[in-house]
Amino acid sequence: MLNVNSCAPKSEEVKYVVHKTPYLEFCTNCQETVTTKTEQVFGMLNFALFITCLFLPCFIVCFWCRCFMDVHHRCPNCNKSLGKRDRI
Asked: Which of 7, 41, 44, 67 could disulfide-link to 88, CB 3.0 to 4.6 Å?
């Protein structure tokens, strides 16, 4: 008999990290301790600041400045997501 629960895809929660820079983390996928690879992406803070500053001449700064971006940490070997730092 087929167990329906074993066929369902397993979703993994990506943990919240406070690091903006790469750090040492154990990857459960490739079973190695690695220094994470970081990727900066636009997040909710960028869009919230854009809407807030839309009528000011400096509204584009929220997309230009990296300090407002979210940071995603990945394993450099297998590219598995190891954590993320959301600004909001």
From this structure: 44
Whether 5 is in a domain gets the answer: no
Q: Which amino acid is at 53?
A: C
Mind giving me the DSSP string for 33-70? Answer: EEEPEEEEE--HHHHHHHHHTTTSTTTTHHHH-GGGSE
In angstroms, rounded to a whole number, what is the distance separating the alpha carbons of residues 9 and 3? 13
Q: Is 1 inside any structural domain?
A: no
71-82 confidence digits (pLDDT tens): 999 999 999 999
Instruction: Please choose, from the candidates 61, 58, 48, 59, the residue with its C-alpha nearest in 3D space to the C-alpha of residue 88.
Output: 48
What's the number of domains the chain is made of? 1
Which domain covers residue 28, as residue numbers?
A: 15-85
DSSP state at residue 32: E
Mean pLDDT over all residues of the chain?
A: 83
> Do residues 63 and 46 touch, judged by C-beta distance below 8 A?
yes
